């Protein structure tokens, strides 16, 4: 890579919203975030996946709420008033992610974002699409497509 191409590559930054789930730090691409809101108790739905808390009314729209700790198999206390909901756009659908706390908005040079090592036996269960180090802390970038895959439509 030429020196000028390397400078341009370093200049491209990705903005991430960082947050905590349990004692772990994660982030999502800021472009997928629609809003951050305080805790709202979700109305449970029968036969929903175990990580789906239910739905809430967001200004007249039914918004599914996913408990990110349950989805990532992180052992934490049940969601409560101390939690925050990050409203994101995934696969053309808006949904809420329950997290413990929102930390910061970060601008990370693209050259400092690395793919994670392939440690999973099941590629469909990989929720981390990238890793980066911020102030000596390892920050995981969540793959929202894996957290909430598109709904398959059965065409008969």
Could you please describe the fold and organization of this structure?
The chain is mainly beta. The chain contains 3 helices and 10 strands. The protein has helices at residues 3-11, 68-71, 144-147, and strands at residues 13-21, 24-29, 33-38, 52-58, 61-67, 84-90, 93-99, 101-109, 128-134, 137-142. The strands form 2 sheets. The chain has a 5-stranded mixed sheet. Strands 3-6-7-5-4 form a 5-stranded mixed sheet. The termini are far apart.
Helical content band: 10-25%
The count of strands amounts to 10
**Total helical segments:** 3
Instruction: Estimate what percentage of residues fall within beta strands.
Output: over 45%
The radius of gyration computed from the alpha-carbon positions, rounded to a whole number of angstroms, is: 17 Å
Q: How can the largest sheet be summarized?
A: 5 strands, mixed
Succession of helices and strands = HEEEEEHEEEEEH
Low-confidence stretches: 152-156
- The main sheet orders its strands as 8-1-2-10-9
**Mean pLDDT level:** 84
Which of globular, elongated, flat, extended, rod-shaped describes the shape? Answer: globular
User: What structural class do helix, strand and pairing data support?
Assistant: mainly beta
Q: What is the CA–CA distance across the termini?
A: 50 Å
């Amino acid at each position: 890579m030429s020196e000028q191409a390397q400078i341009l590559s370093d200049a491209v930054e990705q903005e991430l919203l960082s947050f905590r789930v349990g004692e772990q730090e994660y982030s999502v691409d800021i472009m997928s975030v629609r809003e951050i809101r305080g805790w709202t108790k979700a109305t449970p739905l029968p036969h929903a996946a175990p990580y789906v808390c239910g739905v809430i009314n967001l200004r007249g729209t039914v918004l599914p709420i996913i408990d990110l700790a349950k989805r990532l198999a992180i052992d934490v206390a049940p969601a409560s008033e101390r939690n925050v909901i990050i409203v994101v756009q995934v696969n053309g659908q808006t949904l809420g992610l329950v997290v413990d706390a929102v930390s910061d908005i970060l601008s990370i040079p693209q050259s400092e974002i690395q793919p994670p090592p392939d440690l999973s036996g099941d590629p469909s269960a990989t929720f981390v699409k990238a890793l980066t180090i911020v102030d000596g802390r390892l920050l995981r970038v969540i793959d929202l497509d894996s957290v909430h895959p598109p709904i398959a439509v059965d065409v008969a």
